[in-house]
Specification:
By secondary structure, the chain is mainly α. The chain is built from 4 helices and no strands.
């Protein structure tokens, strides 16, 4: 939206889950949520003839994607490093994929 104004009638929600629920309950609604929230209750838009699939998001052909990052202030503590290593492991990637998100790599 390029920091433009929002219509007074817009239903602004605080999270991806709330967006999914709001869109699923209103046949005229449109919203933006992470790919992991797309299921049978909401439809993702085909853009420029490109389907909103995990593969198309990963290879860059689907034009509306956002990456999520894991940041630390300075070197992570041992516990935080263990968590990051787990998320980046094959097991962590499989859990990420299972829940509809795209795993990240180092």
């Amino acid at each position: 939206m390029k920091k433009g104004s929002t219509a007074n009638t817009a239903n602004v929600v605080p999270s991806n889950g709330a967006m999914k629920v709001a869109v699923a309950q209103d046949k005229n609604a449109i919203g933006y949520a992470g790919i992991g929230h797309v299921d049978a209750t909401v439809k993702a838009m085909v853009l420029d003839g490109v389907a909103p699939t995990q593969e198309n998001a990963m290879n860059g052909s689907y034009s509306v994607v956002r990456k999520l990052y894991m940041n630390t202030k300075g070197e992570p503590s041992k516990l935080v490093r263990t968590f990051i290593d787990y998320i980046l492991s094959p097991e962590g990637a499989e859990i990420t994929r299972k829940h509809g998100y795209i795993p990240i790599s180092r």
